[in-house]
Amino acid sequence: MQPTVDSFRALARSSPWRWRTLHFTRHSAAGEVEAWLRRPGELLVRPTDGSVHYQSGAPYVVTFVRSPPDGADPWPDRDLDPGPTFRPDGFVAERPEHYHLEHGDPMWQNYTWTAMLDPDELSHDVDVDDVRSGELYGRDVWWARLRPVEGYEPRCGCCPLLWSEVSVIGEYGDEPDRLARFRAEGFPDAYDAALDVQTGVVVSLDPIGRDPHDRAFAVEIHEVDADLDAVFAGRP
């Protein structure tokens, strides 16, 4: 299957429904970490120093409460977790709004980690160009050149996948001094990104042009949907 702009965006929103467990190594300027993830909500991370860190639960805590007007019957039950709408090619056409709030993967260090694993933010309000198929660490991937545009909504405004003037204005638009400092530092012109075709995970992100924060990373996937019972045995 040859990727298109439309299918690339669909793959970016599909990760939660394409895999249950993942064993991978993330390479970045911050260091190398090996990780095991079991959905829903279990993450084991091992940095190169040999330490082991266990995280559980979604990194967002949101409770929705509503009451009926005085004298009215109780609100009827509503489906708080409707399923996605799938395309004929198996990718997600539309996903439940704010799905990640209750089902996001556990976080390691910052929200870029969770966005890497479920990159829905790349599926809208991002210009997608030069889409092409390729291979990375022996796995099929789809590459694209990405530029965020007005309306880009990252998982977290302070640590988006696509650090840019657009993302900075959205997060710090009411802080002129900080905004001016970020502008003086400069932003990447665009990003070359690769999505793993089987999982939808971002397995490469490479800023093009000036990148004062060195946000590049690569993900080497070792196993998908392997039995991780032994890995998580004894964890709370």
Describe the fold and architecture.
It contains six helices and eleven strands. It has a single domain (5-225), classed as Clam (outer membrane lipoprotein receptor (LolB), chain A), CATH 2.50.20. It has helices at 5-12, 99-103, 111-117, 165-172, 176-185, 229-232, and strands at residues 21-28, 31-38, 42-47, 53-56, 85-86, 92-94, 126-136, 139-148, 190-196, 202-208, 217-224. Helix 4 runs antiparallel to helix 5. The strands form two sheets. A nine-stranded antiparallel beta sheet has the order 4-3-2-1-11-10-9-8-7. It is of the alpha+beta class and 236 residues long.
**What is the N-to-C succession of helices and strands?**
HEEEEEEHHEEHHEEEH
Widest beta sheet: strand line-up? 4-3-2-1-11-10-9-8-7
CATH fold label: outer membrane lipoprotein receptor (LolB), chain A
Count of individual helical segments: 6
In angstroms, what separates the terminal alpha carbons?
Answer: 42 Å
What percentage of residues falls in helices of 4 or more residues?
Answer: 10-25%
Major sheet details = 9 strands, antiparallel
What's the structural domain tally? 1
Estimated share of beta-strand residues? 25-35%
Radius of gyration: 19 Å
> In terms of structural class, how would the helical and strand content be classed?
alpha+beta
pLDDT averaged over residues: 88
Would you count the extended β strands for me?
11
List low-confidence stretches: 62-69, 73-79
Coarse shape: globular
So, CATH architecture?
Clam
CATH class: Mainly Beta
